[in-house]
Prior knowledge:
Layout: H1 2-36, E1 47-54, H2 59-72, E2 73-78, H3 84-91, E3 95-99, H4 109-118, E4 122-127, H5 134-140, E5 146-149, H6 154-160, E6 166-168, E7 189-194, H7 199-212, E8 217-221, H8 230-233, E9 237-239, H9 244-253, E10 254-259, H10 283-290, E11 294-298, H11 303-306, E12 314-316, H12 319-331, H13 333-350, H14 353-361
Parallel strand pairs: 1-2, 1-3, 3-4, 4-5, 5-6, 7-8, 7-10, 8-9, 10-11, 11-12
Helix pairs in contact: 1-13, 2-14, 3-4
Amino acid sequence: MKDVAKKRHRSLPEAKIAYRSGYAEGRRFGGCQAMMERVQMFEPTMRDMKVLYIPQGFDAIDEGVILALQQSVRECVVGSPATMLQDASQHRPDVVLVMNGLHVFPADHLEQVDGIRALGIRTAVWFVDDPYFTEDTATICRHYDVVFTHEEAAVPFYGGNGASRVIYMPLAVNPGMFQPRRIEPQHQYDICFIGTGFWNRIALFDELAPFLANKKVFIAGGQWHRLTRSDVLGPFIHEGWIDPSSTVNYYNGAKIVINVHRTCENGEDNRNTHHLEGRSINPRTYEISACGTMQITDARGDLPRFYQPGYDIETFTTAAELESKIKYYLKHEQERQDMAWRGLLTTLNQHTFARRIAQLLEHV
């Protein structure tokens, strides 16, 4: 009987922690729901167009674009990078929209694009990896009728490399995939980062290691074996790819999600041989905020166009500043949640693929 009493006594603090955690999660999710009720409805104009969409293989982007096209044009056909000329010849669309044109596209990619144009079909490419592969995109851009890029600094670059028409088109989020969810304890962390261990990210987390040592931290992605301070950070690392659904769970479960853009320097991780500057924000910026979670991101030049630092997103420039802000927001829950909720509202009102595709279609 004494052992049972002791066991019950030990479980009381655990029960209290579980209650508090459940209450906090319910409050967080309830606040997200309240924000979502304030979202301005957007109905895209239905265009009498047939679009052949060629995906890159980024599920988080491709699924959002496809859904937005289905809501915006008479017919949307999804093709394949390997058979895009055959797909265009078979379906005879008004326009072929290619996502990125990199990585998974075959060696005859540009020959296929030229063949599609020879059929009298308009072509467009949307570069969403700028400026990290300018060695390749500087050539690719010349083969398309319209070039969209999410990197404003790339607009004059492509124009100077022979592209006939270049348009700045930022990325967005698929709110059907990235959205607030109720989260179980196994996904709850103080701090979360999901992404590849590019060298600038490695340097940042190595510097933060002593501060993070006593926090509940989740870091996932490839290349994190590069860490110097794996003695401290090793237990936090989940090496390998995390699928979008799991990513959404971890974003929702974190008190703070860190966002660090990759370096633009040419080298091991990039093919930016033209040394183009990067000012655009990455898709992760929208995706984190769409989950109703507090985000602290390194400051990119374009950021104030989309979010208001200190209001619906937080920024940092040094590891010391990031550490200071993490300390502050972990202690000030109400301020943290208010900012996260405002970021959610901004994202759903302004930065969904439904809105972005409506803008894109005006140009094709």
